[in-house]
Design brief:
The structure holds two protein chains of two kinds.
Chain A lengths: L8 E5 L4 E6 L8 E7 L6 E6 L2 E4 L4 E4 L5 E6 L8 E8 L16 E6 L1
Parallel strand pairs in A: 1-9
Antiparallel strand pairs in A: 2-7, 3-4, 3-8, 5-6, 6-7, 8-9
Chain B lengths: L4 E3 L2 E4 L5 E6 L6 E7 L6 E7 L2 E5 L6 E5 L5 E5 L8 E8 L11 E2 L3 E5 L1
Parallel strand pairs in B: 2-11
Antiparallel strand pairs in B: 1-3, 3-8, 4-5, 4-9, 5-6, 7-8, 9-10, 9-11
The chains are: A mainly beta, B mainly beta.
């Protein structure tokens, strides 16, 4: 399974764009990149998923370079309510050794200040 | 449309006791997964239930067991509690996709278990 590395913490200010980069040098051909967000005392929430290039939804954008060895979650114009832990997950959820389980690392704790 | 619900919200138990946690999946979902989240760590997969059977299991001892009912709700049971079992227990539900698994899992708010 691909190991992921992301910053432990990041600080930002309201209104700024925040980019959180995740390294996954050993990503396999069938692996997808998925990001989850977790607020204190709540369960994680799916944000976005991608395989290559760029994916955008109403919450965030995900940039994946051609070699797929890293990915960047971009949050436009953050607010105080975006303060949370962000997890980068890499894997092939249907593979025998993953079989439907989400594999979380330690995540990036984002703190948005006024 | 109700999301994933879990009960109880908080629980305090003594070492050696047994505990049962409950989960109701999001409407329309048939698969339930359980995760353990220690303070400051990411969630760790315990097991997953589909069609009332354990389909996948993480690296947890047999003290952790579960059940899924015909209405898709689920229970997590932990026997012989240890201090190290203190954690947030999360339930996640999903639907069967083309391969039978889904990246987009919906999590409940969790049950905070404290073992003293």
């Amino acid at each position: 399974l691909a190991k992921t590395t992301q910053p432990i913490s990041m600080d930002s200010y309201e209104g700024q764009e925040v980019n959180i980069t995740c390294s996954h040098n050993n990503i396999a051909t069938n692996d997808y990149i998925t990001w989850y967000q977790q607020f204190p005392s709540q369960g994680p929430r799916f944000i976005i998923q991608g395989y290559k290039t760029k994916v955008t939804n109403e919450v965030a954008s995900l940039f994946i370079p051609a070699d797929r060895k890293s990915s960047t979650l971009s949050l436009p114009r953050v607010s105080l309510s975006d303060t949370a832990v962000y997890y980068c997950l890499v894997g092939d959820i249907g593979a025998d050794n993953q079989g439907g389980k989400l594999i979380f690392g330690q995540g990036t704790e984002l703190s948005v200040k006024p | 449309d109700a999301g994933v619900t879990q009960s109880p919200t908080h629980l305090i138990k003594t070492r050696g006791q047994q505990v049962t946690l409950r989960c109701s999946p999001k409407s329309g979902h048939d698969t339930v997964s359980w995760y353990q989240q220690a303070l400051g760590q990411g969630p760790q997969f315990i097991f997953q239930y589909y069609e009332e059977e354990e389909r996948q299991r993480g690296n947890f001892p047999d003290r952790f067991s579960g059940h899924q009912f015909p209405n898709y709700s689920s229970e997590l049971n932990v026997n012989a509690l240890l201090l190290g079992d203190s954690a947030l227990y999360l339930c996640a539900s999903s639907t069967i996709g083309g391969q039978g698994y889904s990246y987009e899992q919906y999590f409940g708010p969790g049950t905070r278990l404290t073992v003293t």
